[in-house]
Amino acid sequence: MKRVSLLISTVLVIAVITFFLFIPIFKVFSFTETRMHNPQLFYINVSKETSFQFRFTHSIHRTDVLENYEITNLNKLKLNSMEYEDVSIGMPAYAEEGQSLTYENGKYTLYFDDKIIDNFTLYVGDVDYDLYVHYDGNEYNLKQTLNRGSSYLFEVKSVSLYDKLKGVLLRDEK
């Protein structure tokens, strides 16, 4: 009888450990290399804060571009606005349907009415220009950790403790 009880206890402990190790319960900003057979997960832990920004230096204009996002209830990305200084190569000079464009204090701001996406591919160029994520009072320099010249699928998703342990946590610059 003691052996059966011990066996049942052991099976339950293994089941609980397996559950907590492999069930995706941690929400993260996920950066997954797109051109690898066994891509490594780079991530930023997501707290209750829902807004975040990408800031990068445009490689031609050499001015900052700020993209403002929100995380939706379904872990999708809502693009709220883009701020930039030049409208020539690669930057919109007019608003399309579902958008509005303003110009104040030398900056253009393109607002999006309801631009929701699942993910996007982020290319980390091999140039010495800024590429940062601002989130929850922290600033993450993506060029310090991500491989230059590589593409990453960026999304908000839930991962397991096992995924986090084998992945790379991006650290705040401070």
UniProtKB/TrEMBL annotation:
User: TM segments?
Assistant: 6-26
User: Which InterPro entries does its entry note?
Assistant: DUF1850
Specify the species: Ureibacillus acetophenoni
Give the matching Pfam families. Answer: DUF1850
Q: What is this protein called?
A: Uncharacterized protein DUF1850
Q: Which UniProt keywords apply?
A: Membrane, Transmembrane, Transmembrane helix
| Superkingdom of source | Bacteria
